[in-house]
Amino acid sequence: MLQRVLVWAVSSLFFLSLSAQDCLRYYPQETDGSFEIMTYNKKDKVESRAVYQVVERSDNQITYEATLYDKKDKEVTTMTFAIYCEGDVLKVDMRNFMPANTLEQMNMEGVDVDMKSTDMAFPANLTVGQSLPDADISIKVTLNGMPMLTTTSETTNRKVIAKESITTPMGTYECFVITGDFFAKMGFVKVQTSEKLFLHPEKGFLRSESYDKKGKLESYTVRTS
After folding, report:
1. What own/partner pairs with CB < 8 Å and gap ≥ 24 does 142-151 have?
2. Which of 128, 140, 132 minimizes the C-alpha distance to 157?
3. 166-180, pLDDT tens digit by residue?
4. CB 63 within 8 A of CB 79
5. Which CATH number fits domain 2-223: 3.40.50.1820, 2.40.360.20, 2.60.120.10, 3.40.50.10540?
6. Per-residue model confidence as pLDDT tens digits over 3-22
7. Cα 75 to Cα 89: distance, rounded to the nearest angstrom
8. Where are the domains of the chain?
């Protein structure tokens, strides 16, 4: 759940590009530059805080370090994200959805990891009514040939449904509204939600909302800086 918050926010932040060389131009790019995203539950109580910092940049890729803090503002985990351009489409490496314990297991002696993925893509020109490509990743971990862990994560039914004005700590902006379904399974544990994202052509990600299977709001995130 915590990693989903981190990656979903980051992947939504980088959705717009004009050409290959301009793919990243609207977003924080300066090394040591940082921004913050807050997550709240359905009762408007703080659930977590995430701080994103640029650690490396090239012509077609930006690498961010994301640090997540819990509701008591205690550091929980740190992850690194690589966002890259492919032509005029910006993509998010779906390996970012890998659980932290899976990453640790990959370095163990005798462990073999079989991983297949389709990276999340954000085309350059968004329009209302546009459908966006699905994204997924599947991971099978074995130890000396014996199965240890199988996990899958997929984002489907992504669509630009509207343009809507919203107000955040950063100001009031007219945003594209993008919806999608998120499903993850690790062993016997399943997570299924629907997501709504608010993205501005120049400011990028400003807000997201997460709903349960019955369509009730579970949590939401807001970019504060």
Report:
1. 142/111, 142/112, 142/114, 143/108, 143/110, 143/111, 143/112, 144/110, 145/112, 148/105, 148/111, 149/102, 149/105, 149/186, 149/187, 150/186, 150/187, 151/98, 151/99, 151/102, 151/184, 151/185, 151/186, 151/187
2. 132
3. 999 989 999 999 999
4. no
5. 2.40.360.20
6. 444 454 555 444 433 333 45
7. 33
8. 2-223
